[in-house]
Amino acid sequence: MNTSSNEHWEKWQNYKGFEQRAYRFTAEMLPLFFKWLGINEHSRILDAGCGTGVFGRYLAGGLTDGQITGFDINEGFIEHGKERLKELFLSDKVTLELADGFNLHYADNTFDAVTNYTYIGVLSDPIAGMRELVRVCKQSGTVSCVIATNAFPVIWWQGDYPFNGAYELQRLYRLENDILSKYVQKDLSKNLSQNIDWHALRYPKMFELCGLKHINIHPYAYTFNYNDENIPLEYRKNLLYDETNEEINWLTSRYEENKKLYNEHGFYDADFTQLIGLLEIKLEYIKNNFENDKSFEWRGGFNFIVTGLKV
Prior knowledge:
globular
């Protein structure tokens, strides 16, 4: 068993990046998630590799006397997640625990259903991780993976902003993102000790190898419009500001570590410098003008859920 990915995730510090996932799940989607994940308001559910617990908190919205247990190998994620549970008054429905997904302390056949959001894909040995999830699921229970796959690039329209360079920002972002998805992502996965042979499109076959039956695939999409007046203004502003800051940091890191690969495919130091500069201009614009902004920046993506029954 290859457990090398644990070394990376034990030390990971980007809690905010996990919290930003909350907008990907809406109230109207919850009944479909319950149907596909094989859960109901009374279910005892395991949320594997839960990070700060965003997905578990979302599912908790449909529970009455059900219970969610989330585990992660990163102590910081768990402690941050516990604080969020207290703030949202969800500690009675969701429990977060420190655990190693390759060697879970739960007994066989413990949970009514076992799920996860993008967890299996970050493991160095996805099959070993899946077999542990199957082991702790009850007979006739559903095991599922909710997947945001790199095979389908995220849509991010960075808005019709009025500042100079807004359209150049779009062009440079598309160029960088195209190179990232086609050439750089594989190297990034290797650096994090992630297994690239069992990519998300092969999960149905992985489910079969792990003994699951009645395997199915359920597609869904998500979008988020930063000008949506149904969402509190301060939340939208802070989210966009934080995400843009995160993008600057992440872009800087991946370009510096993979400069040769970027250069080989037509993205150079001058492009990188200009892109960072335009994102910083955008940050200033958000800070000073968001209340009256009508740029209609939005993002979205295609996701899917693979499910199987333990019989």
